[in-house]
Amino acid sequence: MKLLRLWPLLALSLLAACRPPSSGPLWLSRGVPFELRAPANGPRFFSSQEVVFHLPDGHEEQLITSVENDGEHLSIVASTPMGLTLFTLQLKAGKVTVDERVPLPKVFDPRLLPALVQLSDWPLEDLRRGLRADASLEDEGNVRTLRRKGKVILTLKREGTAPPYRKNVLEIPSVSVSAVITTLED
């Protein structure tokens, strides 16, 4: 299955030093740990999204997600375009639980998806509390940029007026990976 090739590439390129999903911070990049923020600190919403990854070798991979934040828990269901559920994830009371429906690569930390949701949608000051002092997160209108020691780690360009944004474009320049995340109409 082509989609499952995507997980190792993202995992190796984004999470150089990841840990099991329930322990410690999520590593967004080497030297950039991030503590997931509380669901209560973010906006309440439900959204179905299409995620299209653009990989360095020119290939594209597609994922369908359902994301819900009700203030008590943030949950994500990740599926293939044909409807095969890959995994479900829930963040509640500071604990992450993952139900894998297919084996995920050992190096892939599924907490990356809620981290990206939070980096796009959560209040800036709350996100900054989840980063170490040598990392900075800036918000210039609808563009959020994460840097460490001046080097761009990732950029999120958001289209729309409020979460869930109509479209997010994720760029990770160090590994030439990008993704377009489009909110699907109900």
Written overview of the protein:
By secondary structure, this protein is an alpha+beta fold. The chain has a single domain, classed as Clam (outer membrane lipoprotein receptor (LolB), chain A). It is about 15% helix and about 45% strand. The protein contains 3 helices and 12 strands; from the N terminus they run αβββββββααβββββ. The chain has helices at about 5-15, 110-120, 125-130, and strands at about 25-30, 30-35, 45-55, 60-70, 75-80, 85-90, 95-100, 135-140, 145-150, 150-160, 165-170, 175-185. Strands 7-6-5-4-3-12-11-10-9-8 form a 10-stranded antiparallel β-sheet. A two-stranded antiparallel ribbon has the order 1-2. β9 (about 145-150) and β10 form a beta hairpin. The longest helix is centred in the first third of the chain and has 12 residues, at about 5-15. It starts with a helix and ends with a strand. The model is unreliable at about 1-20 (pLDDT under 50).
In short:
The chain has three helices and twelve strands. It is an alpha+beta fold and 186 residues long. The longest helix is centred in the N-terminal third of the chain and has 12 residues, at 3-14.
User: How large is the radius of gyration?
Assistant: 15 Å
Main sheet strand line-up: 7-6-5-4-3-12-11-10-9-8
Shape: globular
What is the tally of beta strands? 12
Quote the beta fraction.
35-45%
Output the CATH topology.
outer membrane lipoprotein receptor (LolB), chain A
Q: If classified by CATH, what would the architecture be? A: Clam
CATH class: Mainly Beta
Number of spatially distinct domains:
1
- Unreliable residue runs: 1-20
- The arrangement of helices and strands along the chain is HEEEEEEEHHEEEEE
Structural class assignment: alpha+beta
Counting H and I runs of at least 4 residues, what is the number of helices?
3
Q: Which percent range fits the helix content? A: 10-25%
Mean pLDDT: 86
End-to-end Cα distance, whole Å, is 28 Å
Largest sheet: number of strands, sense, barrel closure = 10 strands, antiparallel
